[in-house]
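--- STAGE predict ---
source: upstream dedup step, 1 unique chain passed
mode: sequence only
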Amino acid sequence: MLTGLVLCLVVMGIAVCSLSGDARAQGAQSAIDCAIQSGPCTKSLADGTLTLDITPRPVRAMHDLTFTVTFSGVKPAHDPFIDLGMPGMIMGPNRVVLKRAGDNTYQGTGVIVRCPSGRRTWKATVSVPDKGSAEFVFDVVY
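--- STAGE serialize ---
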C-alpha cells in the first residue's frame, strides 16, 4: 500500500512538473527578478519594503534552507509566511512558516524540492496578512 502511494506521488510530481512542457517557450515562466545566489532581494510592500534572504548559499534544492524576511516601514500584525512553487506550474503546497526572530525580522526553515523535469526556476511568495504579498523568482542549484 505504501509503495503504491509513493509511486503515485512520484508519477504525479513528474506529470505536474512537466505539464506544460517547456514553459519558457510558452511564455508561462516568470522572469527571474532575484539573484538569490548573490545575496538578499528586496521588494516594495504596502508603505515599505521587505527583504528575502535564503541561506546557506548556494541555494540548493533538496537541502534544509533558512528563509529570512526583514521589513522596513512595514509592521506585520500577524506572522508572515512563504509559499514556494514553480512559475507557471500547479503544485502541491510547500509553505514556510515564519516566526519572529528580532525587530522586523522573521525566520523559518523549508526545502525547495527538485523537479524531475530539470527546471531550476522557483518562486517564493511572501504573504503578510492585511498588508499584501511580494513574489521573488530565482534559480536554485541541483
